[in-house]
Amino acid sequence: MHHFTYRDGVLHAEDVALPRLAEAVGTPFYVYATATLERHYRVFRQAFEGLPHELCFAMKANGNLAVVRTLANLGAGADVVSAGEMEMALMAGVPAGRIVFSGVGKTAEEMARALKAGILQINVESEPELETLAGVAAELGLTAPVALRVNPDVAADTHHKIATGKAEDKFGIDLDRAPAVFARAAALPSLEVTGVALHIGSQITDMAPFAAAFGRIAGLVEGLKGQGIALKHIDIGGGLGIPYIEGTTPPGPAEYAAVVRQTLGHLGATIVLEPGRLIAGNAGLLVSRVVRVKEGTSRRFLILDAGMNDLLRPAMYEAHHHIHPVQAVPGEAPLRPIDVVGPVCESGDTFARGRLLPELKEGDLVALGSAGAYGAVMASTYNGRPLVPEVLVNGGRFHIVRRRPDLKEMLALESLPDWL
Ligand SMILES: Cc1ncc(COP(=O)(O)O)c(C=O)c1O
Ligand SMILES: N[C@@H](CCCC[NH3+])C(=O)O
C-alpha cells in the first residue's frame, strides 16, 4: 500500500534506501514513487468508471518529465496553463488530443501554438480572451475548440490564496453572463463550442462546495441546451484535497465521484477531470540533510540544507508537511519540540514550528512528506541556490530526471553589458 516505508532501519522509496539515494544524488532532492503515482491515477479513474470522462493531469502540480510520462503511459492527458507546460506535456508523450489549456492570461502567441498543436480544448476565461482567440483561429484558418470557464461564485473552505471560485476571484466568466457569452462564442465561425469549465480551488476536503458548484453548472448546461447549445464536455477542474497530516482521511475520489454523478451524471457529457495534487502530492518527498542543530535561548532549531526556495508551501500558505527522520526511530525514543528551518535569510524560511521530533544531529537525513505536488514546480534560485534534482524511483531502480546544475551552469545564463 505505502511506497515510502521503513525497512532495515531506514526510510525507503519503493525498494531504494534513501541514504543510498542521498549518497548518489546529493541533498536536497525530490524523489517520486512510480507505484504511488500509478495507484493514485488508477483509484481516481476507477471512481469514475462507467461515466464518460477524460483525466487531464494538472501539470502545474508536477511538471517533471518522467512523472508526466508515467501518467501519459497510463492514458492521462494534461491540463496546461502556459505554452511551456504544453511543450513539456507533448515532450512527455501526452497526445495533443488530450491536452486542455487553462489560465486567465493566455497570449495570442500561446493560443496560436495550442491551435497548431491541435489540442483538445482551450478553456477561455473572459470575453476579451474569447475575441482574441476567435481572431487568432481565423487568421490561422483553424477552428478553435473552446470551453468557457465559468465562475460559479462558490466559496471553497481552503487557504484564501488557493480559492478560485468566488465572484471576486480573477478566474472565469460570471455565471449570469455565461449564457450571453456562450451565444457569442457559438456565433463566431472560427470557434467550436465544446464545453464548459470550472475550478473552485485547491486542497478542498469538504464535498459541499463541489456539490454546490456542480449543481450551478448543471443548471447552466440545461439552460444552454434550451438555447440550442449542446456541450460535449463538462470540465470540472481539480481541487480534491489530500491528507497532509498523517492519520487523517479526507474524502477521496469515491466520495468526489459520487458528487459528480449526482450533480452532472444525467447530462450525457464527457467529464473532464484536472486533478493535480491528488495524483502527485503524496507520491513525492523532499529529502534533506541536517546542517546543524542550534540551541537558541528561547527555541531550538533544526537547520536543514533545504529551504523555502526548494519547498515554498509552508512559507506561502502556512502549509503542514510531515517530517520523517530517514533513520527509523525506536518507539520509545523521546520526542522534543523543535523549529525546523532552512538556510535562507528570511524568518519565513520555516518548515515547522515546535514540531515533535526525536533527537537529530548534524548529517542526519530527513524527508518532508507530501512534497510531490506544488513542490519542485514552485522552487526558485533565491539566495543563489541552484534548483534541486528530481529523481523517479520504480521498484529498485532510480533515475535522476533533472540533475543539479553546477554553479557555472547556473551563472552561464547571465552576462554583463560591455559598458559596465
Ligand atoms: C484550472 C485548474 N485546474 C486544475 C488545478 C489542479 O488543482 P489540484 O492540484 O488542486 O487538483 C488547478 C489548480 O488549483 C487549476 O487552477
Ligand atoms: N500552489 C498551491 C496550489 C495552487 C493551485 C493552482 N490553481 C499549493 O501549493 O497548494
Outline type: globular
What is the mean pLDDT? 96
Number of helices: 12
Instruction: Give the termini separation.
Output: 59 Å
Q: Which CATH class of the largest domain applies here?
A: Alpha Beta
Structural class: alpha/beta
CATH fold field value of the largest domain = TIM Barrel
DSSP strand content: 25-35%
Count of extended strands? 21
Helicity, as a percent range? 25-40%
List the helices and strands and how they pair.
Blueprint: E1 4-7, E2 10-13, E3 16-17, H1 18-25, E4 29-33, H2 34-47, E5 53-58, H3 65-73, E6 77-80, H4 83-92, E7 99-101, H5 108-117, E8 121-124, H6 127-140, E9 144-151, E10 173-174, H7 178-187, E11 191-197, H8 207-226, E12 233-235, H9 253-264, E13 270-273, H10 277-280, E14 284-295, E15 300-304, H11 313-317, E16 323-325, E17 336-341, E18 350-357, E19 365-368, E20 390-394, E21 397-402, H12 407-411
Parallel strand pairs: 4-20, 5-6, 5-13, 6-7, 7-8, 8-9, 9-10, 9-11, 11-12, 12-13, 15-17
Antiparallel strand pairs: 1-2, 2-3, 4-14, 14-15, 14-19, 16-19, 17-18, 20-21
Helix pairs in contact: 2-9, 3-4, 5-6, 8-9
Bound molecules: pyridoxal-5'-phosphate and lysine.
Lysine is lined by residues 60, 162, 202-203, 313, 317, 374.
